[in-house]
Specification:
Protein name: PIG-L family deacetylase
Structural class: alpha/beta
InterPro entries: GlcNAc_PI_deacetylase-related (IPR003737), LmbE-like_dom_sf (IPR024078)
Radius of gyration: 17 Å
Strand order of the largest sheet: 1-7-8-6-5-2-3-4
CATH class: Alpha Beta
Strand content: 5-15%
Low-confidence stretches: none
Keywords: Zinc
Shape: globular
Mean pLDDT: 92
Organism: Amycolatopsis balhimycina DSM 5908
Bound molecules: zinc ion
Order of helices and strands: EEHEHHEHHHEHEEHHE
CATH superfamily: LmbE-like
Number of domains: 1
Number of strands: 8
Amino acid sequence: MGEHQGAEALAGRTPTVLSAHYDDGVLSCGGLLAAGAEAGTPGTVVTVFSGAPEPPLSAEARKFHRACGLADADAIARREAEDDRAMDVVGATPVRLGVPDALYRKDAAGNPRYPRDTEISRAALESEAELIGELAAVMAAEPAVRDAELLLAPLAIGNHIDHRITRAAARLLDRDPDTVWWYEDAPYVIFPRALLEPFDESRTAPRIFRLTGGQWDRKLRGIGCYASQAPILLGGNTELPKYLTMYAESLAGGEPAERYWKLPAAQL
Ligand SMILES: [Zn+2]
């Protein structure tokens, strides 16, 4: 089922990854980015939710910072520095759209949009329709997105509202569907049932993107740059690289790979 290809699948195209948060692009597409850099077509990672919080921070945002070992005052600066290092490792250029993370957003009355983090995966996408429309316009005007020869966008596995917003905005872009590959959000995708729902209908054209050992190693080293997220990803499980590798090797008969999906036009 599907195609098995490596860097040749890029066909000389420069990739742009739409990353919801700082680490998502490398976690999910770091191997493809490394392959692009090696092939002379280095990519760009456009991080959507990269904006600084406006004080006062919600209790949930402060809790998140504490869990990450980040100070409230310079959390974004620290994460940006981590991202800069990760971009160097995978050979990509960062672009940041500066929209505040769900944990930082406030409603019209100035109250936290998501006072409890459990609401972030359960929130109805319709409640973010305004932001989705604004974001689609920003993406359409951003040269790294507008001119991207190949766009990598999230399937939003794991259901985080920021990933779903990114997916919904990407769907509003007026693009040839053949130039958009939908990526599996890691690490959420490694859970056994992650792909069963609600993506069954989209399982029409998976592309197995084979990686060399060197490309996989660059991806893992890139992920390692996001030190503040280590206590959060997979609940702080220090074996994250091992589990990511097991999943990646399960896709292509023992060699590491990333899997990308093509969504039918009916779902766009
Ligand atoms: Zn994320």
